[in-house]
Specification:
10 strands, single chain, Creatine Kinase, Chain A, domain 2, about 350 residues, globular, 2 domains, alpha+beta, two-stranded antiparallel sheet
Length: about 350
């Protein structure tokens, strides 16, 4: 498997399966771990960072979960390949900065990705489709245990796992769900909900994580603090909040469907017409229009559209994916033209 193989396939988390997958696109568990015998990445020497990569690579060879996985050093990738991994939610933007002495492991179906020498020595990520936090956490826990058989992680008896950022110490666990909330956005309730979850120790980010906008009405909801809480408490707390968000989004959808159906039908019709006929379309505009189409499909107002195809479109229209398809670098206008053509072909079948 290569980076080139990834962009042409649909990641497991985009399959549109699992509980409440109409609203919850994916569930993610991320564990931050550091090797006990080396300083944190920001303080480690080049030789120590290389030793971390070597130790991790050797541990992976003994782990059943990583058979057939792709293991690459970030310094060997070009900018387009790095951007592909960001767009597929397999690495962070920070992992592409000063990429020497960094690596990433990606499992065959993109369920597992592990960044080596990002902020911490290891960032273990498990990403699955739908509202599936508990099973995702259990898989992450098994991977963590298997790695710990061959790697000694940095811990303290009174703190738990030690991490570069104090807010990640303790369990080192960050749980999140990617939720699609078009009805709450349309009814102007989403701001109140984001403010409320902030008071409960949660945060909301955009489609591509920290510092990004909620294009396409997608929000990543995650816990902010791990210290002093067990992994199960973190997962359960987020799960309860996500269930409330699902309930409120469904109520908003039902209200719009019952009381503003003509207005909704008009938005869906206009969005579909624009996606079919546009000659130039930006990422932001395309995401917002596709969000309306996805809502229409979920409500049964558009027939014959598979959710996994729509989910995959959100990724395939991103700049790096478009350029990979074209086999060359594109200007902003060329990308907008390629995006419009690609979407048009998908909907004019």
């Amino acid at each position: 498997m290569t980076i080139g193989d990834l962009w042409g396939q649909t990641g497991e988390w985009l399959k549109g399966t699992g509980p409440n997958s109409d609203i919850v696109m994916s569930s993610r568990i991320r564990l931050a771990r550091n090797l006990a015998k080396y300083p944190f990445p920001h303080w480690a020497t080049s030789e120590q960072l290389e030793a971390v990569i070597s130790d991790f690579e050797q541990a992976c060879k003994k782990a059943d979960y990583f058979k057939g996985a792709l293991f690459v050093r970030m310094g060997e990738l070009d900018n387009l390949e790095k951007q592909i991994l960001i767009e597929r939610h397999l690495i962070s933007r920070e992992h592409t900065v000063k990429s020497e002495h960094k690596a990433v492991l990606i499992s065959e179906r993109e369920i597992i990705s592990i960044m080596v020498n990002e902020e911490d020595h290891l960032r273990i990520q498990v990403l699955q489709s739908g509202f599936n936090l508990h099973d995702t956490w259990k898989l992450a826990d098994r991977i963590d245990e298997e790695l710990e058989q061959n790697l000694e992680f940095a811990t303290a008896s009174d703190l738990g796992y030690l991490t570069c950022c104090p807010t990640n110490a303790g369990t080192g666990l960050r749980a999140s769900c990617m939720v699609h909330l078009p009805a709450l956005v349309m009814t102007k309730q989403v701001g109140r909900i984001i403010q409320a979850i902030g008071k409960l120790g949660m945060t909301a980010r955009g489609l591509f994580g920290e510092g990004t906008e909620a294009y396409g009405n997608f929000f990543q909801i995650s816990n902010q603090v791990t210290l002093g809480r067990s992994e199960e408490e973190v997962v359960d707390s987020l799960g309860k909040i996500i269930l409330q968000i699902i309930e409120q989004e469904n109520a908003a959808r039902n209200s719009i469907f019952a009381n503003q159906r003509l207005l909704l039908e008009d938005r869906i019709s206009r969005s579909l017409a624009e996606l079919k006929s546009a000659r130039l379309i930006s990422s932001e505009e395309a995401l917002n229009l596709l969000s309306v189409i996805r809502l229409g499909s979920d409500l049964g107002m558009i027939k014959g559209l598979d959710r996994n195809i729509l989910n995959d479109l959100f990724i395939q229209i991103q700049p790096a994916h478009l350029q990979m398809k074209q086999g060359k670098a594109l200007s902003a206008e060329e990308r907008d033209a390629a995006r419009a053509e690609f979407i048009s072909k998908k909907f004019n079948i």
